[in-house]
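Extended Data, record VOC family protein
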Amino acid sequence: MKIEKIHHVAYRCKDAKETVDWYTKNLNMDFILAIAEDRVPSTHEPDPYMHIFLDAGDGNVLAFFELPTKPAMGRDPNTPVWVQHIAFKVKDRETLLAFKERLEANGIEVLGVTDHSIFHSIYFFDPNGHRIELACPDPKEEAMLAKLDAVKWDMLEEWSRTKRAPKHAAWMHEKELSGL
């Protein structure tokens, strides 16, 4: 018994129409479905909502709920803003840079390109305050992934014991963090 794939990932949004417009304009996602009810199907509680679905490529679906009767959205104040995010893969660095250019032309502040060795990323926020990452593979990704695969269990065990960053894969961010 195995999970086949993620059916969809759902987040909350402030405004469903604004969210659809933003994702279609800035990330070329197609708006594929909307569902709205006055009662929640799983809990049966009365709570009107709009549930929208966007095509995030390759069968991946990104969904949002607009909940007009609930208090304004918040975020966990104990979790740094860089932790909670969703990352989308793009084909290559040229595509990554084209997205960066488009986003900045649309007035969106973009952080990066950040060098993670196995991939390279840019970061920005959607209109709901969700952090988004676009990542492209490094040409040497396969060989680096093999190196990481070889040490993953040792790293996890060491972290579990010490709660300090194991150095098995320190090479990954050496260039990025040294400022070279």
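Summary. DSSP finds four helices and eight strands in the chain.
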